[in-house]
Amino acid sequence: MAKGGTTSYAIRRMRTSKRADAEQWNERRRACAHALLNRTWITKDSDPEMFYWIKDQYTELRDWFSEYTGFVLLLTRTMAKLDKAPLVAQSWMGITEFREVRDYTFFTYALWFLEGKTELDQFVLTDIVEQVGEQMAAAGTTVDWENYQHRLSMVRALKKLRQLGVLVGIDGDESDWAAHSGQKNVLYECSPSTRYVLRHFPRPLGQYRLADDFNELIVYPETADGELRRRRHRVFRRLLLEPAVSDTDWHPDDLYYVVTQRRTIIDNMQFMFGMEGSRYREGLYFFYPELSAECDLFPTAAAVSDLTLLFAGELRRRLGERDWFVTEQGTIELTRTDVESILYALKRQFEDYWSKEHRSMGLPELATALTAHMSEWGLGAWRQQEGGGQGERFIVSAVLSRWNADYSFDEDERDMG
C-alpha cells in the first residue's frame, strides 16, 4: 500500500512537472511571438534572455509565421527579426519622431550610406552629410545644409538610427551639429544590424509599379493553393497589425475566409499570442485578456482614451433620443456638430475630472483630438458624404459599441453633483 502510494505520488508529480514545463514553454513561445511582432528586432546584447528563447523555439516560430502571415523570421548570431509589413498602411504606422517627409528621405539615404560600411567601421557625421548630399543631387533632389530645417530633419533621422542601434554614437551630439551650422561633428560606429533595417523584397524594386505592390511579401504560385495561401496571409496580417477590422473593411474574398475559417483563425491566434477572439454580427475581433508591455492596447493610458469611453457611453444613451441611423453593420453617421454636441454634454457634466489639457480645449479642438484617436484605433473614420452631399460624416464603428463607461462616484460626490 505504501509503496503503491509512493509510486502514484511520483507519477502525479511527473505529470504535474510535464504540464508545468509545457505551460512554461507555451508562455515563452507567446512572449517571443509578441516581442517579434512588436519590436523592430531583438538583439543578444539588449535582451539576451529573449534572444535565446527565440533561438530555442526558432523552428516553430518560423514555421507558424511563414504559414499564416508570410512574415520571414531572421536569426543571426547577434539578433532576431521578424520581417513584417502591413497589408493596409495606416497613418499611425509611421515613425512617430518624424515630422516631415524629408525626415524619411534622409533616413533612407543614411541607410544607403551605411550599406558601404562594415561592422565596427568608424566615420563622422560630416561624411554622411557630404555623401548623402551628393547622392541626392545626382538623383535630382536638392538639399541645403545651410537650411536649419534641413539639418533638423537629418538630426531626427540619425537619432532614430541611433535609437534602433544601427548607429553607435562614440562622441558628439547631432543637435550640436544642427545648432552650429554644421561646424560640430559626431563620431559613429557601424553596428551589425545595419543591413536588416529594410525588409527583403521578393522581386527587384524596379519591377514594382504601384505603391500597393510593395505590400508583397512572397511570390505566390498561380494555383488554387497559392491563392488560398495569399488569402490566409492577407487575413492574418491585418488581424495582427491592425487594432480592429470590421466585416465592411474586408475584400469580399477575404471576408469569406474570415467567416468560414473563424474557428481556425481564433485557435491559431490563441495558440501563438494568447488572444481571445469573438465573432460578432459586425466582425471578428480579438482582445488581449491581460496587459502586455510589448504593444499598445486600447484603452490606452492617455486621457483621450477615457474620453473615448465616455463618448461611447453617451452615444449609447442618446441613440433612443435622436434620429441617428444605425446601419446593419452597426455603424452610426455623425456630423461634426453631432460630435461636438456630445462632447459639450460630457464637458458640462465631467469637466472637473478631465485633464488640464482637455479642460482648456474648445469643442472643435476637442472633437479633432477625439476623432483622431478613434481613427487610429479603428473605432471610426471621417468620410465624405456620398452623392455629392456637403460636408464630412464621422462613421462610428460598431466596435465602439463593445465599450461603455461612466465615472464612479460615492454617495457624497453624487449629493454634491
Note down, in words, how this protein is organized.
With 417 residues, this protein is mainly α. It has 4 domains: 68 residues; 103 residues, Arc Repressor Mutant, subunit A, CATH 1.10.10; 75 residues; 114 residues, Arc Repressor Mutant, subunit A. It is 49% helix and 11% strand. The chain has 15 helices and 11 strands. The strands form 4 sheets. It has a 3-stranded antiparallel sheet. Helix 12 crosses helix 14. The termini are far apart. The N terminus and C terminus are likely disordered. This is TIGR02678 family protein. InterPro entries: CHP02678.
Which features does this protein show?
417 residues; mainly alpha; Arc Repressor Mutant, subunit A; 4 domains; 15 helices; 49% helix; disordered N terminus; disordered C terminus
CATH topology name of the largest domain: Arc Repressor Mutant, subunit A
CATH class call of the largest domain? Mainly Alpha
Q: What is the total tally of β strands?
A: 11
What composes the largest sheet?
3 strands, antiparallel
Beta-strand percentage range: 5-15%
Q: Which structural category fits the helices and strands?
A: mainly alpha
Note the total helix count.
15
Radius of gyration: 26 Å
Q: Report the average pLDDT across residues.
A: 88
Amino- and carboxy-terminal Cα gap: 71 Å
- Order the strands across the largest sheet as they lie in space: 1-3-2
Q: How many domain regions?
A: 4
What is the H/E order? HEHHEEHEHHEHEHHHEEHEHHHEEH
Helix content: 40-55%
Pfam family, one: DUF2398
Protein name: TIGR02678 family protein
